[in-house]
Design goal:
Blueprint: H1 3-37, H2 41-55, H3 69-98, H4 104-143, H5 154-171, H6 174-183, H7 189-194, H8 196-210, H9 215-240, H10 257-273
Helix pairs in contact: 1-3, 2-3, 2-4, 4-5, 6-9, 8-9
């Protein structure tokens, strides 16, 4: 084996070791935060269940249909919260591993996009928790026929909430996706504006797929999805707008050798025709 192959293998192994260490640090951070929150696991779940509990009629309650559900569901919720709290540190570990291999202009673009994507994901989850879930649960409970007691299983409720969080968190990433596609040259801003009618229809299709089968929650996902698409188009147009002091690369073209020789000959002819003092 040559020295070059040995060096390449050593570099690959060192990268694997660094990746393992950073993944281990991220896992330890999540576990430490989880252990710190475990004592308040029940209170954390009660906070998550509050939108439904408030919407239930007087005397309404949630139920557990499996033996281990009352323990496992609060633990799962606490683990999810621990991961969200640890997410900035986890992203830092990922960035520290990837950043050395990026160019300077890629770093300038990647870091703000990563930070913005995390903030938008949290914003989408907050939108679902504080606005969408109370309206949806009030609508569902008020629509229940007379004599029907609304009591949902806590495990199914957790699955429902996680689906909403994932749907709205992902939806709020649309501006980032639009900006990245434009910056990579996959699509132009003009093309994004032209396909606006199809995007609006697609937003309602996505809302119908990823939300419960009621018009309220579907609309509350589709409308923000469309508005976020428009925000992404505006930001992408601003980022790709040419600077006023930038040189027009298409208008500027360096002279060829033949053109330079002709220009020098012309200058010599002009100097030869000038009267001598």
């Amino acid at each position: 084996m040559s020295d070059a192959e040995d060096s390449l293998q050593d570099t690959f192994i060192s990268h694997l070791i660094e990746l393992r260490d950073r993944l281990l640090r991220s896992l330890i951070a999540v576990v430490v935060v989880f252990l710190g929150l475990f004592h308040w696991a029940r209170q954390i779940y009660e906070m998550l269940a509050k939108p439904l509990l408030v919407a239930l009629p007087k005397g309404g309650q949630m139920i557990a249909t499996e033996v281990t559900t009352p323990f496992l569901v609060p633990v799962k919720v606490t683990l999810m919260v621990a991961f969200l709290i640890s997410l900035p540190y986890v992203l830092y570990q990922i960035w520290a591993f990837v950043a050395p291999g990026l160019y300077r202009h890629e770093k300038r673009l990647a870091l703000p996009l990563v930070m913005a994507s995390v903030a938008l994901f949290f914003l989408g989850m907050s939108f679902a928790y504080f606005l969408v879930m109370p309206l949806v649960f009030h609508f569902i409970v008020s629509f229940a026929p007379a004599g029907v007691a609304v009591m949902t299983d806590i495990g199914k409720y957790l699955s429902f909430v996680l689906t909403l969080f994932l749907a709205f968190g992902t939806t709020f990433e649309v501006p980032i996706v639009v900006i990245v596609l434009v910056k990579m040259g996959v699509v132009s801003v003009q093309k994004l504006r032209e396909i606006r009618p199809y995007v609006i229809v697609g937003c309602f299709v996505v809302g119908a797929i990823f939300t419960p089968p009621d018009m309220l929650s579907q609309t509350m996902l589709a409308v923000p999805l469309w508005l976020l698409y428009e925000v992404g188009v505006l930001v992408a147009a601003f980022m790709t707008r040419p600077r006023a002091d930038a040189v027009d690369e298409e208008a500027y073209r360096p002279m060829t050798n033949e053109e330079m020789d002709r220009e020098l000959d012309r200058i010599e002819e002009e100097n030869r025709d000038l009267p001598k003092s």
